[in-house]
Structures are given as C-alpha cells and as structure tokens.
Design a protein that fits this description.
about 270 residues; alpha+beta; Jelly Rolls; 7-stranded mixed beta sheet; 3-stranded antiparallel beta sheet; 6 helices; 12 strands; disordered N terminus; binds 2-oxoglutaric acid
C-alpha cells in the first residue's frame, strides 16, 4: 500500500490504518513525497563529509560488504531535526505497529558506492524467542528514507514481501522455491518506507558514481533497549527537545560533547 501526500503531510485516520495494515501484512509500507526535498538536500550536503571521514577512519572493516558503509549520524544540525524523528504520521504508524511509548534507538545511514555488491539475504534483528517457530508481533522498525532518488542503477534495497512473520529458514525456503521473490524498492528523495526489520532483504550494487545514502531511524517497543545502535544526545540539546522527544530518546546516552569522533561504529553485527 502506498499513500501519496497531497497538499498536507497529514494523513487521515483511515489512511494511517491502511498504512499500518500494509506494514503488518507485507512487512513494509511507503509514504510517497513525505519529507521536504530542501531538508533532504541539506542532510545530503552535511552527510557527504561524514561518509568520507568514516571511510578514511574505518572503511577497511568492510563489514557491510565491499564499498558499502554504515554511518551513525551525529545528533546535531541538520540531523537532530524533529521534523524527521517526531513526524506525526510516521509516529502514528509506528505506535500502531510497536505499541505506545516507543523508543527512538537509531539514527544512521547505509550507503553503497560503486564497487558494492549483492549482500547476503538477511534480517536486521534476531527473533525475540528463537526457540519458537511462531514469530511475534513487530518489535523493531526501521524508518528509511534516501538522500538521493533510488533507481534500478544505484542499488535499490530489495525485500521479500510478507517474510517478517516467518522464521528465516521458512522465508529462505519460499525464496528458493520462488513462492516469494525479492522486490527492488525504488524511492524518490522525500519518500519514506516504514519496515519491520525482520523482513528478508538485501542491499544491491550501486553501479553509478554517486553514493546512495539511505537513512535509518529506528524505533523499538517501549521495553527494548538496543545499545549497539544508540544515539548520543548532547546534554546542551536536552532543553531544546520537546517532552515527546525526550521520552522517545530516553534509553540513549547523554554526552557532554559530540566532538570525539574517534569511536569505531559499534553496530558491526547487523545480519541475522
Ligand atoms: O541497501 C541498503 O540500504 C540495505 C543495506 C542493508 O540491508 C544492511 O546493510 O543491513
């Protein structure tokens, strides 16, 4: 299910329900033309130097595959803009999926460059109860939006619809028997995908010279703490945050400064 924003970025209650149903059934839903392109341009401009610094510092780790990088964004201008992480429509779908009082746990990017390859098909989180063959309702969501248009050439994310409620083995069996297939998700800058991170997916090669950054804002159920993807919140920002933002960010570390950029990304194990 795809809903196109018209003159307002506020969806009706029934549209929010439809988006929620799509995400429950397919594992994802898409809100077209949702975020301001001007703001996305500002993010891309601010992001490119961070990508280059990251590649210099730890590009040799190659833990997402060749020429593909996971970079956490600093919680500062322009990335600390509540327009993105406190979006009313997105939070309405998020709360329908993972319940009231969710936790904002992740603010990062996945970027394939030329020379990147197909990733192994994976999920982004292990099951909560691996001893069960029955999956649980959603507990971890990724809100993804690209900082450039995503085309068939620049490495669209591919996802197998409806596999989020299956065990990985069962999802892989359906893929191998062609009962389900991987679908490339092409998005324009400004489009947003809300997905259950258990849906089987993979990154694909970017065959162009232009990096393809995809932002991931992570939301978890209210009791789930995921320190491996934390957002470092500067103490001086606390007073500027809304009450809702402080609540969303409650499991994240408060830091005196964001100046220390030397730490290696902690989020190295990502595929399950
Ligand atoms: O191409 C993408 O953005 C997806 C990458 C991905 O699934 C991952 O690195 O876990």
């Amino acid at each position: 299910m795809t809903v196109n924003a018209t003159t307002t970025d506020r969806y009706s209650k029934s549209e929010i329900e439809s988006l929620t149903e799509a995400a429950l059934m397919d594992g994802f839903c898409i809100l077209r033309n949702h975020f301001s392109k001007t703001k996305i341009d500002a993010w891309r401009e601010a992001f490119m130097p961070l990508l280059h610094e990251h590649i210099e510092r730890e590009g040799q780790l190659r833990n997402r595959g060749s020429a593909r990088y996971y970079v956490t964004l600093p919680f500062t201008t322009p990335f600390d803009d509540p327009h993105f992480y406190e979006d009313t429509d997105i939070l309405a779908v998020v709360e329908n999926l993972v319940g009231d009082d969710p936790v904002l746990c992740q603010l990062a990017t996945d970027t394939p460059l030329i020379g990147s390859d197909y990733q192994d098909i994976h999920r982004d989180a292990p099951p909560l109860f691996p001893e069960l063959t029955q999956e649980t309702p959603p507990f971890q969501l990724a809100v993804n939006f690209p900082l450039v248009d995503v085309t068939p050439e620049n490495g669209p994310f591919e996802v197998a619809r409806g596999t989020h409620m299956l065990t990985k083995a069962e999802g892989m069996r359906l893929l191998e028997s062609s009962e389900v297939s991987l679908e490339p998700v092409t998005l324009q800058a400004g489009d947003v995908m809300i997905r259950d991170v258990r849906g089987l997916h993979r990154g694909t090669p970017n065959r162009t010279d232009v990096p393809r950054p995809m932002v991931v804002i992570g939301y978890s159920r209210r009791w789930l703490n995921r320190p491996e993807v934390s957002i470092r919140v500067p103490r001086q920002s606390l007073d500027t945050l809304s009450e809702r933002a402080r609540r969303l960010l409650r499991f994240n570390p408060i830091v005196e400064s964001l100046d220390d950029k030397s730490a290696t990304e902690v989020y190295q194990a990502f595929a399950y």
